[in-house]
Write a structure and sequence with these properties.
The structure holds two protein chains of two kinds. By secondary structure, chain A is mainly beta. Chain A contains no helices and eleven strands. Chain A is globular. The N and C termini of chain A lie far apart (about 40 Å). Chain B is mainly β. The radius of gyration of chain B is 13 Å and the shape is globular. Chain B has strands at about 5, 10-15, 20-25, 30-40, 45-50, 55-60, 60-65, 70-75, 85-90, 100, 105-110. Chain B is about 0% helix and about 55% strand. The termini of chain B are far apart. The chains are: A mainly beta, B mainly beta. The interface of A and B includes residues 43, 97 and 102 of A.
């Protein structure tokens, strides 16, 4: 199997606070994980590539100081949304690579009030 | 730049009415073409990987095929539980990154 979990599944926070989302590969090790965000009725938008033990690679237009990514172990990557604002409200999904296939987590719904 | 286009955007079928979803792509050095299923409010679920033209894979009522320019996801005698958004993605020469299409939202009515 290839199971990926995310925590929390949903979070509501106040504007200006920071939120951390965890992505774990439960039954395999993943050197590479990806972070996406998805708006309603749209496809996935890649935010960044997370490689274990090195700095994340961010896609054009994604603020690296706002979306902090840490991949400290082969089974865990975290995404921290710093100083969140209402426009950061979205569905955040991670994936972990096993062989060459990306397996996705269940997603985290972030709502910023 | 890799590109993926899926059609139709939405498809309504009656239960038992077979049909096909299309995924057209351009990619520099195809390493794999992936199909995922996504239910509302959930992450994509892996279905198939196709690696070379002529390859076919099946799973229950789904069959995926691949040519050099497009892939089809054939759905035979669909059931309401097959209702979901189906995503196609290609993996080119740039590592494990995927380029996704916009998806096809399938609705199967009983």
């Amino acid at each position: 199997g290839a199971v990926v979990s995310q925590h929390p599944s949903w979070v509501i926070c106040k504007s200006g606070t920071s939120v951390k989302i965890e992505c774990r590969s439960l039954d395999f090790q993943a050197t590479t994980m990806f972070w996406y965000r998805q708006f309603p009725k749209q496809s996935l938008m890649l935010m960044a590539t997370s490689n274990e033990g090195s700095k994340a690679t961010y896609e054009q237009g994604v603020e690296k100081d706002k979306f902090l990514i840490n991949h400290a172990s082969l089974t865990l990557s975290t995404l921290t949304v710093t100083s969140a604002h209402p426009e950061d409200s979205s569905f955040y999904i991670c994936s972990a690579v096993k062989s060459t296939t990306q397996y996705f987590g269940p997603g985290t719904r972030l709502t910023v009030l | 730049e890799d590109q993926v286009t899926q059609s139709p955007e939405a498809l309504r079928l009656q239960e038992g009415e077979s049909s096909s979803l299309n995924c057209s792509y351009t990619v520099s050095g195809l390493r794999g073409l992936f199909w995922y299923r996504q239910d509302p409010g959930k992450g994509p679920e892996f279905l198939f990987t196709l690696y070379s033209a002529g390859e076919e894979k099946e799973k229950e009522r789904l069959k995926a095929t691949l040519t050099k320019k497009e892939s089809f996801l054939h759905i035979t005698a669909p059931k309401p539980e097959d209702s979901a958004t189906y995503l196609c993605a290609v993996q080119g020469s740039a590592g494990n990154m995927l380029t996704f299409g916009g998806g096809t939202r399938l609705m199967v009515k009983p």
